[in-house]
Amino acid sequence: MNTIVVGGGVAGLTLAYLLGKKGLHVTVLEREDRVGGLARSFRYDGWSIDIGPHRFHTDDKVVQDFICEIMRDRLIEIPRYSKVFFCDKHFDWPLNLNAIFKLPPSLMMNAFFDLLRRPGITDDSYESYVLSRYGKTLTKHLFSEYTQKFLKSGLKECHRDWAETGINRATIDKDIKSSSLMDLVLGVLRNKKVNTKFLYPKEGPIDEFSEILKENIVSMGGAVETGVVLTDALVEDSTVQRLVGSDGRAWETDFVFWTGDLHDCERLLGLSPSELNYCSTVVCNLLVEGEPPVPSQWEYFGSSNLIFSRTSINTCFNPGLAPEGYYGICAELLCYQNDYVWNQPETLFNSIMQGLIHAKLVRNFNSIMEVHFERIKNTYPIYKINYLINLEKYKQKISGIRNVLSCGRTGGFWYNNMDHSIRSSIDIANMIDPDNFTETRVLPVRGVYRGDF
């Protein structure tokens, strides 16, 4: 029995590894030249840096045990320190009591009155959700500008799920509440110290995890093929029989787990295109001389005056990711494929540098030793106001193909973190009984599996 996993990211590799452990012959097909997906890393001469901030953190013992099974003693524990740039100042995130005294008095006063006059939820939009939870002041100064910059859409056009999911993803620590203005105020007044700990590879960047998974899959008799662009599929009796690559290679298959772009899946299977979209990211990776003036693992930038939406510093995760006396910084520019940012990011270098200098993340132009622009496709699913309807339509279409399951962050159109991708793949693997699976040739779930935890 031939099982194909399309996509060599965290979800795909985890699933392939677990199915291989169950005795199935698994082949992973990845379009990029390295595994890791959205959690891959860029390796340059003498230094490396991840696509934005990646680290291991979970309250799920199943996921924790799996990470330890793969990484063994190749992990270090690091404390969390993250920030948000607001009103031209750096604030620790989550906020603490010291932050209050940095805010403009008028903003503090208006936010306080918002506690007394927040409107109720009137629809499923992002705008209605944040107005009801945080009031007009923070909606205007924090959420509205950042969302327009991040998604290129207004708050009315986005579904409330993006707000609920995004805020939880940014907070991370379940002991720290931030789902409403009252939660933020109470959290600040308690002044509880954030003591979140992360795990990170001891040697190398975050995609060490994916590389080790790849090695394990191959050692069990499976295969991991990179640089594969699928261009055709043979579908008979509502079942995919064969996948064909642009170089003419073909892979016979009994089951397909699709963790890649859902539009590629639709094109390959001859299905009508869904009205679901992703945004993409261009990162500007810089090697900088000196120590970080404002050290933080990652920092959010909502102001439209700054072209990047988030930065991360590699040596704040592991000092060994850059030569001594240097640090790497990743500045993220959200975009859509084939827009100006995607096609000509190099022309924006001066604007990026001016922003980094203004935010005091880089001292001056002369401290820059290397510059690398990288393009990453489909980094975030866009939760438009009607996305659930369109996602259900996609699910119904894929359900019509009996041996295909769309899953993972990209395949499931699911804004998640690495731990969620790992857990969803563990759950899928646990549903599969190899003997029954190979005999009935029926997947345990149909269409799309997202996890949604």
Write a short abstract of this structure.
The chain is an alpha/beta fold and 453 residues long. The protein has helices spanning 10-21, 61-71, 97-100, 105-114, 126-151, 160-171, 181-190, 208-219, 262-269, 340-343, 349-358, 387-399, 408-411, 418-430, 434-440, and strands at 2-6, 25-29, 41-44, 47-50, 75-79, 82-86, 89-93, 197-201, 223-225, 230-236, 239-245, 250-252, 255-258, 278-289, 298-301, 310-313, 326-335, 368-381, 404-407, 447-449.
Provide an overview of this structure.
With about 450 residues, the protein is an alpha/beta fold. About 35% of the residues lie in helices and about 25% in strands. The strands form 5 sheets. The chain has a 7-stranded mixed β-sheet. A 6-stranded parallel β-sheet has the order 9-2-1-13-19-20. The longest helix has 26 residues, at about 125-150. The model has no long low-confidence stretch (mean pLDDT about 90).
